[in-house]
């Protein structure tokens, strides 16, 4: 129970800090990989100069529209959350990524997302499928806490079956421990 309280505390603090941010700076995108400084999550604020259009898109509500999913200047462009070895806990540096997707989904109730959970090759196939599912469910729970409905979210686990990197070293294993946001048509 204590880890959940810590997670919720970090999560809420991150939301408050993200809401106060006004720099509009963007970190590296997904291409920077899991080891990139800041992991590309510093751009959560949609302040002036960020290129985000408030209220545009499919649902008409919220700060983000469907076009932001394909806009490299938008936090919604970041569609990967990386995890530590043998963990399904969302690291603090990815909280703002999940929060941006939650804001978009909550404002657009007709929009759906599939959360694709992945694991590196270490461990049994069954264990890795379960770990990928646990990672997807962790992200799903964060989305639901921010107003996204169950009907909008599907969790699929590929375990080790769809690696992002084919190598057999720490660098590749880091890239393979992930959850990807998959939106229809994007």
Describe this structure in words.
- There is one protein chain.
- This protein is of the alpha+beta class.
- The protein has one domain (2-46, 55-182): 60s Ribosomal Protein L30, Chain: A, CATH 3.30.1330.
- It is 32% helix and 11% strand.
- It has four helices and four strands.
- It has helices at 2-20, 95-107, 125-145, 170-176; strands spanning 80-82, 113-118, 153-159, 178-182.
- A four-stranded mixed β-sheet has the order 1-4-2-3.
- It is globular, with a radius of gyration of 16 Å.
- The N and C termini lie far apart (37 Å).
- Mean pLDDT is 77; it is low at 1-8 and 10-59.
Helix percentage range: 25-40%
Q: Between the first and last Cα atoms, what is the distance in angstroms? A: 37 Å
Lateral arrangement of strands in the main beta sheet: 1-4-2-3
Number of strands: 4
Number of helices: 4
Structural class: alpha+beta
Question: What ranges have pLDDT less than 50 throughout 5 or more consecutive residues?
Answer: 1-8, 10-59
Mean pLDDT, rounded to whole units? 77
The CATH class designation is Alpha Beta
CATH topology: 60s Ribosomal Protein L30, Chain: A
The CATH architecture would be 2-Layer Sandwich
Q: List the domain count as a whole number.
A: 1
Order of helices and strands: HEHEHEHE
